[in-house]
Each structure stands twice: as C-alpha cells, then as structure tokens.
Amino acid sequence: MIAFGVAITDRATYERFALPGIERASEPDSRVLTRTGLPIHRAYNEIIDEVAAEPDLKALVLLHQDFELTDDSLPRRVRGLFGDPCAGLAGSLGARNVTLHLWLSSRELYGTVVAPGIDRRFSSRPREVEGVDGALLVLAPWVVRGLHFSDVGVDGFHGYDVDIAMRVRAHGGKVLCDDIPHFHHREPKDDYDAQRLAGIALAKMWDPALRPREWTSAFQS
Fold first, then answer.
1. I need a surface site. Which of 96, 117, 123, 157 has the fewest CB within 10 A?
2. Rounded Cα–Cα distance for residues 4 and 115 (Å)
3. 2-190 — its CATH code?
C-alpha cells in the first residue's frame, strides 16, 4: 500500500492541484492523509504516526499542496527505487554539494523541476544524492517506522527536507532521486530571512556534517 500525505494551509489549492495528482497516481488500496493548520514538520510527523502500523505499507508520499503528480507512474517508480533495501528517501529533484535547499545553485543536480517558467531536466536515470527537495518526499517503510522530522527551529517550509535526508543517511540509508513527472504550481516568494534562519538551525544540529564554514558564510547576518 502506498500512502499519500499533505500539510494543508489552503484547501482550495490542495483540491485544485495536489488532490487530482494523488488520485491520478493512487492505487485501489492507497490512503490519503491530510493535516491542516500545523507546521509542516508536525503535520508530517502526525501522518507518519498514523500510517506506521500499516502492515502492507510500501511507501509514504509526502507532497506540498501545490505539487501535482502528472501521470500514474509514481507507484512503479517507487517500487523500483525501494527495491534496494538501503533506500530510505526519494524525490523528484535532488543534489549533491547543495547548501540548504537552494537546489538550483548546485552544480550537481539530478531529476527534474517543472514549475511556472521552469522546465529543467537534469537526469533520466535514478541517482543517489545527498538530499531531495521537500516539495515531494517519498519515505520507505523503515523510515516511516523509525524516524521523524525534527523541529529545525522555524515554522516554515525550509530545512525539514535537508534534515530528514541527513537522518536517513545517518542511519545508513540512501537518498535517491528520479525524474518523477510533476508540475509544481508554486508562487515565487522572497523569503531569504526564513532560509537563513533554517540554515542556522540546521548547522547547529548537524555541524560538522553540513560543512560549518560554508554554512557560516552563507547564512551569516
């Protein structure tokens, strides 16, 4: 069984974008779980706790309310990726040598990002990466049953994806990226302060794993 989870801040956006994509990608036994009015890490943790006991769980797919899956290939792709027992986390856009979640600044990008004004495809084959963008996070059953998102120090949409990727890797798991078909109906926002605060919080938790010199220079006030 593949479960889907969404943290909702605007139900109209969810019903217009995420829900149709979920219905497109769902299988007959799929479950859809939502949480409204919670910080994203708390919403996701509640969803994790709700599905962790499912004996036939194959994956938990967490996606933003404005992230639309555009075909029905996700279940097949997920089963292929998680055929590796070490695979713990997957997404549609990943990177190596990335600072926080500033994915497009990395020179080692994998997967794809399709959004208003953006259609960039970096690899047609699954790759192992250091982290994946939080708009789509696919968790293996062993991650659902053993790990949680932490409060990275800010209530926002930054840093939680890097944090869960670090947790998976710290437990010996792999983070994978595939070009899962999607359209991210996002509105660009100038949120540098939120990015900076998330970077500081992550550096405190994961230093020295997050290369402290880079973090200090990138997020210094």
1. 117
2. 21
3. 3.90.550.10
Per-residue model confidence (pLDDT) at position 211:
44
**Intervals of the chain under pLDDT 70:** 98-105, 124, 152-156, 187-192, 207-221
Residue 24 burial by Cβ neighbours in a 10 Å radius (0-12, 13-18, 19+): middle
Give this prediction's pTM.
0.88
Three-state SS for 61?
strand
Q: Give burial (CB, 10 Å; 0-12/13-18/19+) of 189.
A: exposed
65 contacts 7 by C-beta, under 8 angstroms: yes
Q: What is the DSSP letter of 181?
A: -
Selection from 26, 35, 34, 14 nearest residue 58 by Cα: 26
Q: How far apart are CA 182 and CA 117, in angstroms?
A: 14
Q: Which amino acid makes up residue 74?
A: L
Backbone conformation region of residue 114, classed left if phi is above 0, alpha if psi is from -120 to 50, else beta: beta
Helical spans, DSSP H, in the chain:
11-13, 19-25, 40-51, 74-81, 141-146, 160-170, 192-206, 212-219
Q: What is d(CA 19, CA 38) in angstroms, rounded to the nearest whole number?
A: 19
Longest alpha-carbon distance in the chain = 50
Distances (CA, A) of 1 to 18, 30, 64: 19, 6, 20
